[in-house]
Fold:
Amino acid sequence: MQESAEHWEYDGSFLGFMTIVDRSFREKKFPALILSPETAVESLFLSEWVTTDPRRGEKIYYRLRQRLRPENFLFIQNGFYATLEGKERYLLDAIEIALQTKDLLENHLGHPSILALRKSIRTMLGENHALTGFVRFEYVGDVLFSKINPKHYVMPYLCPHFAERYPQEKIMIYDETHELLGIIDHGDIHLIENTSCPEFAEASDEQEIRQQWKTFLRAVTIDERANYKAQRNHLPLRFRGNMTEFKA
Structure:
């Protein structure tokens, strides 16, 4: 592929990126920089806006699924949701490599783009795994509600976990970092982007249960055996802000 000095900008969506992929391979060139709404704010470069074309985006999506081995397609999909500066440009390199080989992308760590993506994906999946244990729900009416502050875009991975775990429940998870609301209704998942956190009046029974739980913990705690360093290792401070047991 020919390296181009052009700078492109898109809306940050997955279909938007698939539109970028479609144009790049049709024109046989990779732009030097691909900007999203988050990165465009900090950029001083003039860029060309690439409008998302859902039809072409879906077409290239299904074409990649057909041509790439499943592990490589998953690697690219995971790489898109990971938090990594310049990830779009790295992903174009990854797609080009994946189209040229039947080998796993994980075996091409000598390429800087693949290495950067792999590190970011591992960090994202690690955060998602931690959140499956650290997310705390509270009943608001008949809905289980939770608020999280992840560094990575983990909701497409986190919601299926809780949909499978609580198939008979109505669940809402709000990602403050990405202003993303996940709604799980008896296993069906819907993600709503660019939305504010729902406001609920806290139920008195939840406050009472929380207070009873804290009273129990204080009663069974032996202060002399408290190891706060070990606690921080097992439960980092950044996860505690929205955990019910740490709320006043």
User: Anything to note?
Assistant: The two ends are 57 Å apart (CA to CA). Residues 37 and 235 are 32 Å apart (CA to CA). The longest helix spans residues 112-134. The chain is about 45% helix and 15% strand.
